[in-house]
Amino acid sequence: xxxxxxxxxxxxxxxxxxxxxxxxxxxxxxxxxxxxxxxxxxxxxxxxxxxxxxxxxxxxxxxxxxxxxxxxxxxxxxxxxxxxxxxxxxxxxxxxxxxxxxxxxxxxxxxxxxxxxxxxxxxxxxxxxxxxxxxxxxxxxxxxxxxxxxxxxxxxxxxx
Length: 160
Hints:
Blueprint: H1 3-13, H2 18-27, H3 34-41, H4 54-69, H5 86-96, H6 101-110, H7 117-123, H8 137-152
Helix pairs in contact: 1-8, 2-4, 4-5, 6-8
């Protein structure tokens, strides 16, 4: 899945405005202008589209973690991060939103996508582990769709 699509979907799901998006980037020491942000938010067939690279996507997600959870008192030493893939995006979103396994499964279920606990945990295992599994675009897309439903749709009223 393209990083720009993920950025747009996270922005919509969490109802983030331009100023908040720029603040989130800044929280990970990645100062961007509003014009830069708007080029990242364009669709790939629109004029002025600029592809969001893995480094900037990772910095946005790190900033989102800080934005949602606050700064760490004693942050661990920065180590070289592997190239950002769907597994990394899913993991960082899980951390930012403080989702547990059941929250993740519920979010996927909101998008009519069923996954077992074992299948979900395989996405968070280290690469090289015998049960590690790559997160496909469909799963990430459904998770982002579930986030949108979770955060943007009003809770259903009970008929009591």
